[in-house]
Amino acid sequence: SAKVAEATKTTESAKSEVKSSSAGKFGLQCGAFNDRAKAEALQAKLAMTGLNARITESGKWNRVLVGPIGDRPATANVQKQAASITSCVIIGM
Fold first, then answer.
1. DSSP code string of 30-85
2. For residue 29, what is the DSSP state?
3. End-to-end CA distance of the chain, in Å?
4. Sequence-distant (≥ 6) Cβ neighbours of residue 55 within 8 angstroms
């Protein structure tokens, strides 16, 4: 339950960063797959680290996205957190 409380606290602080940011909205793209199952597997791994990842479908591609997060420095911090799972690129949202 301590991990759940910590994840909730992290999520709440990320939400407040999004609300207070006026520098633009950035997020992460952590993968793009033809196979939906691979996208879902990556989404699950990211969720285990406390990141709220989602899958968007565009044609045959399933993109795994995190965000919007807020300004670029906050997004870079989340990118470092995701680096233990996969390499993500910062994108505008």
1. EEEESSHHHHHHHHHHHHHTT--EEEEEETTEEEEEEEEEESHHHHHHHHHHHTTT
2. E
3. 32
4. 36, 39, 40, 43, 62, 63, 64, 65
With 0-12 / 13-18 / 19 or more C-beta atoms within 10 angstroms meaning exposed / middle / buried, residue 6 is exposed
Residue 75: CB atoms within 10 A of its CB come to 26
CA angle 45/27/42 to nearest 5° reads 15
What's the number of CA atoms in the CB half-sphere (13 Å) around residue 84? 10
- The pTM of the full predicted model, rounded to 2 decimals, is 0.72
pLDDT of the chain along its 93 residues, tens only? 444 344 434 444 444 444 444 456 999 999 999 999 999 999 999 999 999 999 999 999 999 999 999 999 999 999 999 999 999 999 999
